[in-house]
Write a structure and sequence with these properties.
heterotrimer, A mainly alpha, B alpha+beta, C mainly alpha, A: MetI-like fold, B: alpha+beta, OB fold (Dihydrolipoamide Acetyltransferase, E2P), five-stranded antiparallel sheet, 8 helices, elongated
């Protein structure tokens, strides 16, 4: 036997080995404790608050579902919920249609695809506050878009959505779509690039036309992308806060309120803590209703792989 | 040289038991190959020997030491992985010396060892390269070098050649064998490739469903498989297995063999009492393709050779000989014949069946009848 | 997937018209996405008089950086008239420690969750993952109480702490998903070579982690820089981050509106994240798709 270097073995289980075995758990501990307290504990705490009648400060006198009953009879809450429905559905649908269209167009061997993609996607790097600031100015009822069109010769053109309580929620849609559709385009483009080439070749050999191939083969195979896009966009929509705050502050009046701004207004500026907590819990429930099935299906797919 | 003893090892992941009581004794300096289809538990067993996973029950001894509780670094083993597992950020030199450095071996000695190993594996000019700059074969060498450098008492190989192309695999196989002859360290080698197992091993453990089916020398597992699974798994064209009926004809036990329209009644002389219990029943006859051919060198003195005639269905020339496929008792049977003797498909061909080393299996238990 | 049709089809007039249509539409959309930014830049370079007579896309009659100077150094936000520079630096002071700490902890967590799985670790990971999705409204009130108890309310330190805590789920996810792509055999080999928990992390995994560090840092930086909710709830007065300051500037109801100053301030607030996007767009997009679920 050619001996090289001899490492003598010490087959004993030392204290050091014991500590070594615990290290992974020790490393995780702070995060897990933080998660337990600051996520799960705090949600529970918020739930507890929502059953009290706390106003400026937490007071743990329980009043059962009082706050929730108040909430569901509050006109402003219904406006906020209705706005979320309008904003959410328009935002999701327009972003997906626009994103898909852009992705399909970009997938046609475009010469300067990289540059175009970069431009479509840059709004995602901006804060909603910046986006909101820009659109607030563009939609400015006297000096903005309206002025531009009037100066082009349409003297009677009028565009006052920002200050029109029937239309103000739609300005949030405009700005939201501008910010997020590039991102949806990126999702779809990645999906398109992931489709097996040979399926399309097979369809071509079968004599299918290009639009038909897209409609019957490519778009249906993007189903998982549609699914994640809907989830991600609804998630953004439910949590939307910044955009409304800067664009309309929920106004005029509370005509463009969303649940997130509603919660902020009651919990922090109007000192109705428990009432705000109740609205937060309803939002939490809504988000979980969207996310848990999504996570479940994601994890299940991974397990099947 | 150190022995390795595995005693009644069980391993369960949750409720699924992947190893169901494995006992193997490996002699000092022995080359043991664990072979089996994927999912048979062979890699798990190797991980348990290495200490990378915890044993559910049972004992592992390396030399005289019970190592159940010993961490991998203290087991005095080295391992070569299928993916080579070279540290991508380190140069080859560092890859080889990493294990020595963690063991605080003096620099000068490390230097010498690296040189020696590099020399042995002819990788001296690769020492200053990163793994990404190496070919598959070179990576394989470096991975072996890393294991060799520590001069462990047991080497563990986990499918080390599976990622190489066919030609390189054969080359590296020879090199591993040479290496073992040179350093004579105990080796446990996992593979799913039975040719690798046959060519390398002193003994082969064939595993299936977490159980060792047979543990024996390559020759014995080839010639004398204990059950249908081993018979089918070992051999590069697997053993022909044909259901046959045993009948009594005069003094001897005979097998009814039907090819096409003709039925041959072939006497079995080997150990006459063996088949007494099976008269008028069906069992499974096993024979290797080379035991049914156009002729045998010693056919004059072998009275166990019987002639049959059959229609050829398909032929597969392999070069040195040609595989002719016929049908016996409605089962496809491969015959290894001289290329000149092979007939075309559809033609009838005369073949000789040598029953002297044929094996019989119980058709229910699939175990060899002995 | 590329379109082989265009490649193989003969170049007929119909194909040419189709290409023209596609390019036309794409360029139109380029304008749609760029226009708001162009408007911002043009407006920020105009005088207020110019703004009142011109329109959104009219060329400035004279270029002036006055609005930028005002926005940076002397615009009035709430009662202070020192511009947004203080708030800009506040954001820097929040982003640097919060990103560093949350990334480092996330790397260690991801390492454990991928390479040192133990009984129950997958469940713990799933529970942590859920933390990426909760609407923060559900934790704002207890957090405000807790920060108050800790004496950190309305301080930069408090805001940093909040960003670290609620960033951890994401940074852990990033690193865990990256480390699972690194073969387990590498860790096994290192264990047999005698390396322990930290040595394996330090010598084997960290040296190959640069890409995910870039993705994670960019993601966290963008998230924290652009945050508004935590900023508006947990900070006040001179401790506010730039997004809150910008919002206050834009929505102030006192004095005459200086749209050019608003735009200059908005561009200043956008500059750091835009720069990161331009310099490291590839990593930004990778983080976006991996972390998109956070919204």
């Amino acid at each position: 036997m050619t001996s090289i270097t001899h490492t003598t073995s010490v087959p004993k289980r030392s204290l050091f080995d014991h500590i070594e075995n615990l290290l992974p758990k020790i490393v995780l501990a702070p995060t897990l404790v933080a998660g337990l307290v600051f996520v799960y504990g705090f949600i529970l705490w918020t739930a507890v608050l929502s059953f009290t009648k706390s106003r400026l400060l937490p007071k743990y006198e329980f009043v059962g579902l009082y706050q929730y009953l108040k909430l569901f009879t509050n006109d402003r809450w219904w406006v906020a919920s209705k706005n979320l429905l309008i904003f959410g559905s328009l935002f999701v649908v327009i972003c997906i249609l626009l994103g898909l269209l852009l992705a399909i167009l970009l997938d046609q061997r475009i010469r300067i695809e990289g540059a175009i993609r970069t431009i479509y996607l840059y709004p995602m790097a901006l804060s909603f506050i910046v986006t909101g600031t820009a659109w607030k100015w563009i939609l400015n009822p006297s000096l903005g878009f309206e002025r531009l069109i009037r100066q082009l010769g349409f003297e009677n053109f009028s565009f006052d959505w920002l200050v029109n309580s029937d239309m103000s929620i739609y300005t949030v849609v405009i700005a939201g779509v501008w910010q997020s559709s590039g991102f949806v385009m990126a999702l779809f483009l990645a999906g398109l690039r992931g489709i097996d080439d040979t399926i399309i070749k097979a369809a071509q050999v079968d004599g299918a036309s290009l639009p038909r191939i897209y409609w019957r083969i490519i778009i249906p195979s993007l189903r998982p992308v549609f699914f994640s896009a809907v989830i991600i966009l609804s998630h953004i929509a439910i949590k939307s806060f910044d955009l409304v705050m800067v664009l309309t502050r929920g106004g005029p009046g509370y005509s463009s309120d969303l649940p997130a701004t509603f919660m902020y207004a009651f919990a922090f500026t109007r000192s109705r803590l428990a009432f705000g907590a109740a609205s937060a819990m309803v939002m939490f429930g809504a988000v979980m209703a969207v996310i848990i099935p999504y996570l479940y299906s994601e994890l299940r797919v991974k397990r099947n792989e | 040289m150190v022995s390795l003893s595995i005693r009644n090892i069980r391993k369960a992941f949750g409720t699924t038991e992947v190893l169901k009581g494995i006992s193997i004794d490996v002699a000092p300096g022995e080359f043991l190959v664990l072979v089996g289809p994927s999912g048979c538990g062979k890699s798990t067993l190797l991980n348990l020997i290495a200490g990378l996973e915890k044993i559910t029950s049972g004992e592992i001894f390396i030399g005289d030491h019970l190592v159940n509780q010993v961490s991998p670094k203290d087991r005095d083993i080295a391992m070569v992985f299928q993916s080579y597992a070279l540290y991508p950020n380190m140069k080859v030199r560092k890859n080889i010396s990493f294990g020595l450095e963690t063991r605080k071996i003096p620099k000068s000695e490390i230097e010498k060892t690296v040189q020696k190993v590099a020399n042995m594996l002819q990788i001296e000019d690769l020492l200053d390269r990163k793994p990404a700059q190496l070919s598959g074969g070179q990576r394989q060498r470096v991975a072996m070098g890393r294991a060799l450098a520590r001069s462990p008492s047991v080497f563990l190989f986990d499918e080390p050649l599976s990622n190489l192309d066919a030609k390189l695999r054969v080359e590296m196989r020879t090199e591993i064998k040479l290496l073992h002859q040179r350093i004579a360290t105990t080796i446990v080698y996992v593979t799913h490739d039975q040719i690798e197992a046959m060519t390398l091993a002193d003994r082969i453990a064939i595993m299936k469903d977490g159980i060792v089916q047979q543990l024996d020398t390559p020759r014995n597992v080839y010639e004398n498989p204990v059950n249908l699974f081993v018979a089918g798994f070992i051999g590069s064209h697997s053993m022909n297995v044909v259901p046959v009926r045993v009948v009594k004809s005069g003094q001897s036990n005979c097998l009814l063999i039907k090819t096409g329209e003709k039925t041959f009644t072939i006497p079995v002389d080997k150990n006459p009492s063996l088949l007494n219990k099976w008269i008028d029943r069906e069992l499974i006859l096993g024979f290797r393709p080379e035991q049914i051919s156009d002729g045998f060198p010693n056919q004059a003195e072998n009275n166990q050779i019987h002639t049959l005639e059959s229609k050829v269905e398909v032929i597969e020339p392999t070069g040195p000989d040609t595989l002719v496929f016929i049908r016996i008792n409605d089962k496809k049977v491969a015959c290894r014949v001289h290329p000149n003797a092979a007939r075309h498909p559809g033609e009838t061909m005369k073949l000789m069946l040598d029953l002297s080393s044929a094996i019989f299996f119980d058709s229910d238990t699939e175990e060899q009848i002995s | 997937m590329n379109d082989p049709m265009v490649h193989t089809a003969p170049k007929t007039a119909g194909v040419f018209a189709g290409r023209l249509f596609i390019y036309g539409l794409l360029i139109l959309m380029v304008f749609y996405f760029l226009l708001p930014f162009i408007v911002m830049v043009l407006t920020s370079l105009k005088t207020m008089a110019d703004i009142r007579t011109g329109n959104l896309i009219s060329w400035p009659r004279e270029f002036t950086l006055d609005a930028w100077k005002t926005a940076w150094g002397s615009a009035c936000i709430a009662v202070e008239c020192n511009g947004i520079k203080v708030y800009f630096w506040n954001s820097v002071k929040i982003v640097v420690p919060a990103v560093t700490i949350s990334t480092l902890i996330g790397a260690a967590n991801g390492y454990v969750f991928s390479k040192w799985k133990f009984w129950g670790s997958e469940v713990l990971f799933s529970l942590l993952l859920l933390g990426c999705f909760i609407p923060f409204q559900a934790i704002l009130l207890p957090m405000a109480q807790t920060l108050g108890k800790l004496g950190l309310s309305q301080s930069l330190a408090g805001l940093i702490l909040v960003h670290i805590i609620y960033g951890l789920a994401f940074t852990t996810l990033f690193f865990r998903n990256y480390y699972v792509t690194i073969p387990d055999e590498l860790v096994k080999a290192a264990r047999i070579d005698g390396a322990g928990f930290f040595r394996i992390f330090w010598k084997i995994l960290l040296p190959v982690s640069t890409p995910i560090f870039v993705v994670c840092v960019i993601w966290q930086m963008t998230q924290i820089w652009n945050d508004f909710l935590f900023g508006v709830v947990f900070s006040a007065g001179g401790n506010q981050p730039i997004t809150v300051a910008l919002n206050n500037l834009v929505n102030t109801s006192t004095g005459t509106k200086a749209y050019n100053v608003d735009m200059a301030a908005a561009i200043i607030a956008a500059t750091p994240t835009l720069l990161v996007y331009i310099v490291a767009g590839k990593y930004f997009v990778r983080g976006l798709t991996a972390g998109s679920v956070k919204g």
